[in-house]
Specification:
2 copies of one chain form a homodimer. Chain A is an alpha+beta fold. Chain A is 40% helix and 30% strand. Chain A has a single domain, classed as Transcriptional regulator MraZ domain (Chemotaxis protein chec, 3-Layer(aba) Sandwich). The structure holds a DNA duplex.
Chain lengths: 145, 145
Amino acid sequence: MFRGQYVHSISDNGRVSIPAKFRELLNTKYSSTTIIISMFENCLLAYPIVEWEKLEAKMIDLPSFKKETVDFERYLIGNASECQLDSEGRINISPVFRKNLNFKKSVVFVGILTRFEIWDQKSWQKNKELGFKKFQKSRDHIDEI
Amino acid sequence: MFRGQYVHSISDNGRVSIPAKFRELLNTKYSSTTIIISMFENCLLAYPIVEWEKLEAKMIDLPSFKKETVDFERYLIGNASECQLDSEGRINISPVFRKNLNFKKSVVFVGILTRFEIWDQKSWQKNKELGFKKFQKSRDHIDEI
DNA sequence: CCTAATATGCCAAAATATGACAAAATCTGC
DNA sequence: GCAGATTTTGTCATATTTTGGCATATTAGG
């Protein structure tokens, strides 16, 4: 499982190394160092390819020209990109993503079970108090645990 | 699968190069660099010829005189045109398309699984927030995933 | 404090995007 | 149908970006 936080620096051309702990999980549990990163709200979301493909398989069966399908797929897939970790465990984050999420010098990797997020460090810092408030609020709605 | 966004510039006479990632997919998965482009909402829609033919096969089975069929097919097929990528991986976008979609300096390629869209960059930028709103809304209607 | 693992800076090589221009094709008016 | 104008196409050159590999700095673990 992906867990915890790691701060890494990102080079001018968008290259960043994935935390060793995450790399190890990809190797052992998923037997593949290919991941899909996708842009959501204020961060990138990274999935091992296997997990992501399950999702895509379902999407491909949706009626292709229905408005809801187009809106959904355009956003989700249009903001996704496949990354192969290189021999040093690094990936490249495209200029579009970096611009949209305002990635500057450092990024924060946040492990969340079967996926992990990548934040610009400043945005992550800003979201910290808000994150705690949201966590507090969420507790009333999590009935299953 | 086509995924992600790429910004390219388009020459005065409508020539533009297809993102390398897309070209590679055409070469490997589809073994053909022929694509069909047609008009869509505010963008062009591009299919590898194989995928387009699947679409046509389905269209042929639609009830031919139903108003919706005629409207759908007239627009989609009537606006379709075949493009062969040249040795540098470029295609030409006809003056009609460029005029209709107001293609200026830069265009954005948006990968969506078996097809990709081509937007004028300004229009894409304008549609960004709207796109996210639509995505949020669509999530309620996508029950299958 | 030492060692091993990890992260990252650096540079050269490869790939990619795109501008330029001439040749070929197409269109236009006569 | 023909001559000239315009557009499209093919090829090359080049700027830019991406990639691969190595070297060094940094961190974590014992």
